[in-house]
Specification:
Elements (H helix, E strand, L loop, with lengths): L5 H9 L12 E6 L2 E6 L5 E5 L2 H12 L5 H12 L11 E8 L5 E8 L5 E11 L5 E7 L13 E2 L2 E2 L8 H18 L7 E11 H5 L6 E10 L7 E7 L9 E2 L5 E6 L15 E3 L6 E3 L1 E2 L21 H20 L21 E6 L6 H4 L6 E3 L6 E3 L6 H16 L6 H23 L5 E2 L9 E2 L29 H5 L5 H12 L1 E3 L2 E3 L4 H12 L8 H16 L4 H12 L25 E5 L9 E2 L4 E7 L6 E8 L19 E4 L6 E7 L4 E8 L12 E7 L25 H4 L6 E6 L7 E6 L5 E2 L2 E2 L4 E2 L3
Helix pairs in contact: 1-6, 2-3, 6-8, 8-9, 9-11, 9-12, 11-12, 11-14, 12-13, 13-14
């Protein structure tokens, strides 16, 4: 069977409301209990919970065991944080899928179900677990207001389903007729349709419309197709009175898939790939390739070919193209990449209504595929898509389809800067297809391909480049940015600068001193496509960057939170700077902020500011004017007067970073370390907690630890009175002024402890010592 059989695939993808971040409003990030939490603006609902390593290790490892499976680790963390995203009971979450990517991280998808056991449309949770078994990110779309009405047996215009939940034939037909009438009003030319699925669901208007205050109601989800299941596929949502909850969606229109199988070269055909060709060698007979409307072909049956035996790439890609075609229609309103039904280009010998896709390219072209069999190609002349066996995954197919969209609207770029962005665009379109199809995305280019050099879009440093052997860059001035001539100027290596910018804009995050709200990958791909629309005559990186900002302004409005965050995402990744391949030095991003405000080193409990300390004293830091409810990290390091931008912050041996939490008033006070050997040191305040120094986001406080001695020019007042220098023991530094006497002072009747201070008379004193500030009361 194919990866997704036709029926389940259509039903899984026709739902135009994806699980996470689809058409979301502005989100805001806060720090709560060490977590980075992104919420819907206004609604306050949690979009995502970014869990630092220390917290996730404690939550998932300790609760589920040090060798916890991804499922057990996820359940432990969800249970711990369920109140944050409004989940009253974890039994409302049902595991739908568990997938592992190429670097060993696991991605679990849960659907939310109501008390009746019915699925909540558009609701669920995605849990991302690293290869060490710790949850690092939760993405949530939870409906926490489920009224009692959704717990009852579903009904339609007065009739109820059976107690078992099953529908009577009569009730099913009534619901189907209502759905067909709704489609006929939308499209009078639609063919005769048949209901292939009628099922009760719970419909959250707030989640579907990405707003707050709307009702959650019992509903019916109906899937309609023509008899052949080719020309039309509609999805309809109705409430219990038969009223439409959203406009019916037509998911197939004029699609003509031609999926070739290159494992079989028909005798005398003169063509190395097959389409609907019977191979009589096998029993039962096997058809190579699959054209529109043809049945599932099933696993490749040749056991003498261990590389391809059992593969279902023909059926997989047949299904993928349907979802990508539907997504393209939903997002852009165009019929295929070329708006003529497919990807074909008449000038290249292909019919424009066709989407020609060639599988198993390695059979005829082994050098193109390499040992990993993970390459894929888009032919800009014919519009054909070609894939080596392991590259025929959903996001890679969508990546190449994205090139077809770019080519049809604009052109195949020749400038390396434009080509770099085009590759990044393909990766982003691949992630959009994953979310559209599966309800969530892993932001990992090439999921399931097994390619050892992946592009990890959520953190490009996690994946090594096959060209450089180094991590992929996150910003244009990165030392990982490739400036050579191979790979057409490093277009695949450097593409992660753009794709990471789109990740930040889609999901939200903090990078390079900038804080960006998340707005959904659907908005990202709509903005990119709009920038291509009209064949704007740009030829350089900078011109398309400006074009994309203009596209955002035209779609969502200049100065809106959406476009402000889009600009910030590009500033954070330095897309507006010349980059590492130029002679221009890196500059502070315009969006960068020092969110920890003004930070200074102080004595315990913030008694006074200080940069001079004696050995064995405590160092605290005090922050004022910081962003409320955020946190930063403080490191005690060796002094570095020439600390380089983006250098790793390394704590002194025997010390570790200390997290400092800011209160709601923008203030913080935190113990950092105890002084040791004399010398000069730096307190590095890592405002964005990335472990790297950026002068525009972080602060450095230089302190001195000194063994005090008489004659060094400092009369040192220590943190405790016993260690302070005084006029008796250090007369050179602390001697009394003219007319004053160095007198012995005691704090109790036992004459202990004793101090020496300058007084107006030489008589011994016995006074009250104020322990909180080590001073004396002379009233």
């Amino acid at each position: 069977m194919s990866y997704l059989n036709k029926t389940s695939f259509i039903f899984g993808t026709l739902l135009s409301v994806s699980l996470l971040f689809i058409a979301t409003s502005l989100s805001a990030q806060t720090k709560e209990k060490g977590l980075k939490i992104t919420r819907f603006e206004g609604a306050g609902k949690v979009l995502s919970i970014d869990i630092p390593a220390a917290n996730t290790a404690q939550a998932s490892m300790q609760s589920a065991g040090n060798n916890a499976s991804p499922l057990l680790a996820s359940e432990a963390v969800i249970q711990k944080h369920k109140a944050l995203f409004g989940l009253k009971n974890t039994s409302q979450l049902k595991v739908e899928s568990i997938k592992t990517d190429g670097i060993g991280n696991s991605h679990l998808r849960y659907n939310q179900v109501a008390c009746s056991g019915l699925p909540v449309v558009g609701a669920g949770l995605a849990s991302h677990v690293n290869r060490q078994g710790a949850v690092y990110l939760l993405e949530t779309r939870i409906e926490n207001e489920l009224p009692a009405s959704v717990c009852r047996r579903p009904r339609f215009r007065g009739s109820r389903a059976k107690k078992s939940g099953r529908l009577s034939t009569k009730l099913r037909k009534r619901i189907a007729r209502a759905a067909r009438r709704a489609v006929s009003k939308r499209d009078p030319n639609a063919p005769k349709l048949y209901a292939v699925s009628v099922k009760p669901v719970v419909y959250s208007k707030s989640l579907v419309n990405n707003t707050s205050g709307l009702k959650t109601v019992p509903a019916w989800q109906v899937e309609l197709r023509d008899r052949a299941g080719i020309a039309a596929a509609w999805q309809v949502f109705m409430d219990s009175r038969g009223r439409l909850l959203k406009e019916p969606v037509n998911m197939v229109s004029g699609l003509n898939r031609r999926i070739f199988d290159c494992t079989y070269d028909p005798p005398g055909s003169g063509f190395p790939c097959s389409l609907d060709v019977l191979d009589p060698v096998f029993n039962p007979p096997y058809y190579h390739g699959r054209s529109e409307g043809m049945p599932v072909r099933g696993p490749y049956p040749d056991s003498s070919d261990p590389i391809h035996f059992g593969m279902t790439k023909v059926d997989d890609t047949y299904d993928y193209v349907l979802s990508i075609h539907n997504m393209t229609f939903d997002y852009y309103g165009i019929d295929g990449a070329n708006n003529q039904g497919g990807t074909g280009r008449s000038g290249g010998g292909s019919n424009t209504a066709d989407t020609n896709l060639f599988n198993y390219l390695e059979v005829g072209y082994p050098t193109l595929c390499g040992p990993e069999l993970a390459n894929a190609y888009y032919n800009g002349s014919s519009g054909n898509l070609s894939f080596c066996a392991n590259a025929a995954t959903l996001d890679i197919v969508a990546h190449e389809y994205g090139h077809a969209i770019w080519n049809e609207i604009a052109f195949v770029p020749t400038d390396s800067g434009l080509s770099t962005i085009a590759e990044g665009w393909g990766d982003v379109y691949g992630e959009a297809a994953e979310e559209y199809t599966n309800g969530t995305t892993d932001w990992f280019a090439g999921t399931g391909s097994g390619y050892p050099y992946p592009r990890v879009l959520w953190d490009p440093w996690q994946g090594l480049s096959d060209l450089t052997g180094l991590p992929h860059p996150k910003r244009r001035h990165s030392s990982y940015y490739y400036c050579g001539t191979e790979d057409s100027g490093g277009i695949h290596v450097n593409s992660t600068v753009f794709s990471y910018a789109m990740y930040l804009f889609s999901v939200g995050g903090e990078f390079n001193g900038c804080i960006i709200g998340g707005h959904g990958v659907d908005k990202a791909v709509k903005i990119i496509r709009q920038s291509l629309f009209g064949k704007w005559p740009w030829t350089t990186w900078e011109e398309i960057r400006v074009a994309m900002i203009g596209a955002c302004n035209s779609l969502y409005g200049a100065g809106t939170p959406t476009c402000n965050d889009f600009v910030a995402a590009m500033q954070a990744t330095e897309m507006d700077q010349p980059g590492a391949c130029s002679a221009t030095p890196e500059a502070a991003p315009a969006c960068a902020v020092k969110k920890m405000g003004s930070v200074e080193s102080v004595w315990p409990n913030g008694y006074k500011a200080a940069t001079l300390f004696a050995p064995g004293e405590d160092i605290w830091v005090r922050a004022t004017g910081a962003m409320p409810n955020v946190s930063g990290d403080v490191y005690l390091t060796s002094q570095d007067p020439a600390r380089a931008e983006w250098s790793a912050i390394t704590p002194l041996s025997g010390t570790s970073k200390v997290s400092v939490s800011v209160d709601s008033s923008g203030n913080a006070l935190q113990y950092v370390a105890r002084t040791g050997q004399p010398g000069f040191y730096d307190l590095v305040v890592d405002g964005n907690q990335d472990g790297y120094y950026q002068s525009w986001a972080d602060s450095v406080i230089t302190i001195e630890v000194r063994t005090m001695s008489d004659g060094d020019g400092v009369c040192y007042l220590a943190q405790n009175a016993e260690q302070s220098e005084n006029c008796h023991d250090q007369p050179l530094d602390c001697g009394c002024s003219t007319g004053m006497y160095c007198s012995r002072i005691s704090c109790d009747m036992n004459d202990t402890p004793a101090f020496w201070m300058c007084t107006k008379t030489p008589k011994p004193k016995r006074k009250l010592c104020l322990a909180d500030n080590f001073a004396l009361n002379y009233n």
